[in-house]
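ok so I'm stuck.
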Amino acid sequence: MTVAITRRLAAAVMSAVGGGLVVFALLVAAPGDPARRILNLRGIEEPHAEEIAAVRRELGLDDPLPLRFLAWFTGLFRGDLGVSWRTGRPVAEEFADRLPATLILAGTAFVIAVALALVLGVLAGWRPRTWADHLCRLLSTLALAFPTYLIGVLLLDLVAVRLGWGKVIADGGFGTVLLPALTLSLASAAVWSRVLRTALLEFDGATFVDVAATRGSGDLRNLLLHKLPNALPPFLAVVGLGGAALLGGSPIAETVFSWPGAGKYTVEAITARDMPVVTAFTMVAILAYVGVSLLVDLVVAVIDPRRRTGELRPEREAAR
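replied:
not stuck anymore, here's the structure
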């Protein structure tokens, strides 16, 4: 168990460092001189060479790349995300003002996605190859076929504009979170429901299911008390990873619904080519994904002893 945990921790650290290297490379390769951009934001349209050199020293841009990466990467864990080229304020302060709204959106979307996935997955797994199964699979296919921004625009037009349910411009609170959260959750719910359905079907014909049936357990009781608990580990794993990915997918929903969160702010930064903001949001999303992935991996290993060795066997073989 200790070896498996150590291996997972090492993989998480390597993933975080690898993601940091990619993001830092993008920051370094961004066109334009950061020192000149910051001076322009300070009202100096034609800065002198001495002024540019002073700002470069202030930002550490003259240091060797390995030292710059080390300072930048370690600064992430101290809450130092750099300085916005557009506003001149620390990126951490800009995110702190907007992160609560993003967390409200991502958290609500996560709850909706889990609820929809459980309903669709259990219904499809209970009666496979029936009209209920076909309907659930059709709904999940449609949710995956349409891009998130298109779903958001359709919901905004049909629900908010035509029916008058909700507001066109969200205020970042729970009162207006339903439509953007639903937009953000549908694709995840579609994937998770399919994983749950597949996991449930893996236990059709398993010995413990047949024994329970011979003892008089009905199909629904067998599903909820025997199949579902054994199908939860793969479902929880994909839910955990997908839940972290909701944070990275928030910019699209926030932009469509004018949600005042960190995602919308990042989209505005992309338009303005404000690279410190873009790379900071990307790195925060990577660290959240890696952290949640590690946590879910450890939790699944605890509740499913078959996965503690790190060599996951196919569910069909494990069910035999």
